[in-house]
Amino acid sequence: MPKIIKLYNGKIEIHFQEANHSYWLLDENNLKKDGSPKKKRLAGCTTHIGVLDKPALIPWAVDITVDFLREHIELLRDGTISSDQILEDAKAEAERIKEQSANIGNIIHQWCSDYINGKKPAMPEDEQAVRGCTNFLDWVNEYNVKFLWSEKIVYSKKYGYVGTADIGAMIKNKKYLIDIKTGNALYPEVRLQTGAYLKALVEESAESYAGRWALRISKENEQEYMARMSKKKYLKVIPPYVIFEAIFLDSEPDMLQGDFENYLACLMIYNWKKIASKEMS
C-alpha cells in the first residue's frame, strides 16, 4: 500500500510507493471514466539534478578497476582464473563497491531516522555504520539539536516537483532543514537538492526557516582514508582525516535563492530532454 500524504490543506494528495521510491500525484484535472482522479507519476528532485555531469565518477571507477587487477594479477599468472573472468570481475568491481556503500548509507539513514522518531534503535552490526551513527549523536549532543520531523515528503505546486527532505530541527531556537550524506565528500548537488526542498516547504506551509545544514558522515576509518588519499599523486599534502562534518549552506543571504534558481535550470533541462527524446525516437 502506498503512503498517502496530503498537502496544501488537503488540496494536494501525493502517493509514495516505498518499494520503488516512486511519487504519484492524484490529478483532479484528469479523471477516469468513473469520475475518480488519475494518478500522475512525478520525478523527484534528485532525478532532475541527475542531468548534471558527474566527472569524478569515471576516474573513480577506473581506479577501482586498476586496483582490482593489480591485486588479482597473480591469479591470472598462475592460471587460477582466466583472462575473460578476471576482466569481467574487474569490470563489475566498481558497481559492487557502489552498491555496498549505498547499503551502508541506507543503514545509517534508517538508524538516524529511527532515533529522531524516538524509537531508540540498537546500534547497527556494521562497524562503518556504527561510526556514522556515533558521530551523528556527538553532533546532536554538542549543538543540543531538537528534532521536529524526519523523512518529510515535500511538493511544489508552483513548479511541479517532489522529494523527501531528511530532517527539520531547532538549533538555538531557529528552524533549519538538515540533509544527511554518507560518503567521502560533500558535493555541490546537495545545495540544489536542499534548496528545492526548502522552497517547497516554505511554499506549502509559509513557515520561516533560518537556512540549511548538510551533514557528512564518513564511511572510512582513518587508515582507509590515508590509503585512498596516498594514491592521489598530485597531492603534496594530504588533508587531515575528518569522520564527521556539519556545513551551514546559507552563510550569505542570497545563497538559497541562487541554489534554487540553478535547481530550476536542472528541472527545465530534464523536462526538455524528456520531450526531445520522445520526439527524436
Topology:
Layout: E1 3-7, E2 12-17, E3 22-31, E4 37-42, H1 45-49, H2 57-77, H3 83-116, H4 127-143, E5 146-156, E6 161-171, E7 174-182, H5 189-205, E8 211-217, H6 222-230, E9 244-248, H7 255-280
Helix pairs in contact: 2-3, 3-4, 5-7
Question: How would you explain this protein's 3D organization?
Answer:
- This protein has 281 residues and is α+β, with helices and mostly antiparallel strands.
- The protein folds into two domains: 1-42, no CATH class; 43-280, Trna Endonuclease, Chain: A, domain 1, CATH 3.40.1350.10.
- The protein is 46% helix and 25% strand.
- It has helices at residues 45-49, 57-77, 83-116, 127-143, 189-205, 222-230, 255-280, and strands at 3-7, 12-17, 22-31, 37-42, 146-156, 161-171, 174-182, 211-217, 244-248.
- Helix 2 (57-77) packs across helix 3.
- The protein starts with a strand and ends with a helix.
Brief summary of the model shown:
The protein is of the alpha+beta class. It has seven helices and nine strands. The longest helix has 34 residues.
